[in-house]
Amino acid sequence: MPVQLPLRKGAQLNYRAEIDGLRAIAVLPVIFFHAGFKPFSGGFVGVDIFYVISGYLITSILISEHRTGSFSLASFYERRARRILPALFFVIFVSIPFAWIWRTRFWMAPSDFKEFAQSLVAVSTFSSNIFFYLKTGYFDTASELKPFLHTWSLAVEEQYYVIFPVLLLLVWRLGERWLTPILAAIAIVSLALAQWGSQNAPDANFYLLPSRAWELMIGATIASYQMSNTVDETIRPNIFRNLLGIVGLLLIMASVLFFDRTMPFPSLYALAPTVGAALIISFSNSETIVGKILGSRALVGIGLLSYSAYLWHQPLFAFAKRIFDTGSLSETALAGLSGASFALAYFSWKFVEVPFRNKNNFPRKEIFMFAATASVATIAFGLFGHFSKGFASAMTAQQKAILDYVDYNHADLYKEKSCLLLPTQSYSEFASDCRGSPNEQIHLLIWGDSHAAALSPGFRFFVPAVAQYTAMGCPPVIETEIADRPHCRAINDFVLGEVSRIKPDEIILNARWNFYQSQSINFMTELSKTIGEIKRLSPLSKIYLVGGLPQWSPSLPVYMLRESKSLDGESCLNAPLLPDLRATDEQIYDVAATNRVSVLSILDKRCHLAQCRIIDKLDGKKFLSTWDYAHLTEAASRSLAAILLKQMSEASNSVDDPCR
Q1: Residue 396: what pLDDT?
Q2: First and final CA of the chain: distance in angstroms?
Q3: Measured between alpha carbons, how far is 64 from 176 in angstroms, rounded to an integer?
Q4: Share above pLDDT 90 across residues of the chain, in percent, rounded to a whole number
Q5: Most exposed among 246, 357, 435, 476, judged by the fewest C-beta atoms under 10 Å?
Q6: Stretches in the chain below the pLDDT threshold 70
Q7: Cα three-residue angle 572-114-386, rounded to 5 degrees
């Protein structure tokens, strides 16, 4: 439905097609980013552009209503309900049966279905940004498998619009002249908070309103300024408008093409797409180059579908990826799903969005009744799914025994928060006992990410003096920046200092090598540099590169359930990700040979041909080797440690000879 908005003081609220075209420029990159198309590595900035547009449009309407004396909170929330809720609940109600079918076929485990049900409650109460923030633990389900993860942005917007109309009402009493400076001041404070949060609390910074409000405030400030100032068109001729509009479009394009998920966001980097959107909104019109481009029929059409397309794309991608191994969908399939998002968007726009916006079809009372009824129904189903633990009661005893590993108590085993740091922890939070006993020479130092931490319990069982310095998502590679891990580089610098101070007899470097290798083309070179620094600082220490662990998609327990396997069945199972893991191990071998250090292979000892071990024994009892996609149980950690220690004892002492 076309939007009406002002251009200058005293003007009527005129439709601007370029705003709808800008919506298209926002939604397309988001969908293509989630599809994984590499040219759109920064497509996530589309959300930031939407915020600027929303802040501008809503503020324009509210100021106009305040001026005419027609503003009311009931009317405001009626418009929000008409705009947001019908399409949202339509997508939810269509998604629930698919989630149920996926649960019955173990494409969605009961624990995942439980989280899905919880997310329905969060979406219905516009708190999904808080819910998904609380669910961003390192061992949590991969984000691309969560059907309603994208609703975090809707929650941020709706929380903003709970506060903003009241704020505007209060400021209006001070006088309209105060509105623009107050909105600008709030935007500056929120931006400063976002910059600080990007370095110190990245997850909260990404999901929560305080560090996102400035993006909406940019649009609000523009609207307030434009409506409070008469613009002399002779001061801003078309050449000036054309230039700034083009600059705005280039800023958005550069953000989409050159930003990526490794960048701290939102932060000062987010000024590029938001200022770009602000320039287009402020200076482009139907007579400018950018205005004509954005006002084209194709982009305006996509813009009109943008809300529904945004709602549909994530459930489509998430449900499809659950059928296959994560990330294995072809580009053709992902392109098809992207197209399906717009096909469904057209249907929901034409038959849901447009009819519900018509007050003749649905008066205010009916809209509020619909919102209340749909919310109660969704929340009720969500609570039922939560308290039934994802309807786990429908499973057999053998299936439940396998699924229990989803809640495996790994925290104490891995020394989580003390010697296995969380993404939010800095090196100063390593516990004193991470270095082992202070009064004896450390025999073995383990350095790496959570995969290395999973090996540590086994080594501690056999070796009397073990130091463990591990951090979630941080490979043992110096001078490397890791997305969403602001402390990673400092942690590795600290561990390198500990190597210099402790000078352990032996050092193990282990990580999820295949993941980091896929994130950086220079990763193996950087690993070589790290080995060189270790040799320089502690030349007598023997260094061992430990190869990758077997990995299962989406996790070993779920994979076994899909394959109808039990704890009493075969001890090995086909490992679908094995070829990729072996390819990365080959590169580890090359790094080891170049740097004259030893390699300890896990795959060679745990896998044969296409199969890998899934069962280990501890005290005569059988246990799964892995409780999620790769992290070891205590039984597997001990079993592997015994194997690796044997390899270490057999390694040639001359390989690490610093005099060679």
Answers
A1: 84
A2: 75
A3: 12
A4: 72
A5: 357
A6: 1-13, 137-141, 230-237, 325-328, 483, 521, 652-660
A7: 140
Assess contact for 54 and 3: CB atoms under 8 A. Answer: no
What separation in angstroms does the CA of 498 have from each of 431, 432, 442, 475?
Answer: 13, 12, 11, 16
pLDDT digits (tens, 9 = 90+) for 280-307: 999 999 899 999 999 999 999 999 999 9
Q: What is the DSSP string of 57-81?
A: HHHHHHHHHHHHT---HHHHHHHHH
Q: Is the separation of the CB atoms in 144 and 334 below 8 Å?
A: no
> Taking the model in full, what pTM does it have?
0.85
Cα-trace Rg, the chain = 28
pLDDT in tens, 4-15: 444 444 444 678
Residue 451 tokens read as 């995969």
The half-sphere exposure of 480 on its side-chain side, counting CA atoms within 13 A, is 24
Sequence-distant (≥ 6) Cβ neighbours of residue 196 within 8 angstroms: none
Whose CA is closest to 470, among 425, 528, 522?
A: 425
β-sheet bridge partners, residue 572: 613
CATH superfamily of 401-650: SGNH hydrolase (3.40.50.1110)
Contact at 8 Å (CB) between 219 and 59? Answer: yes
CA–CA gap between residue 344 and residue 311 (Å, rounded)? 10
- Token readout for 365 is 């009372």
Length of the chain: 660
Q: What is the C-alpha separation between 415 and 443, in angstroms, rounded?
A: 19
Burial class, 658, CB count within 10 angstroms (exposed 0-12 / middle 13-18 / buried 19+):
exposed
Q: Which part of the chain has CATH 3.40.50.1110?
A: 401-650
Are 278 and 225 within 8 A, CB to CB? no
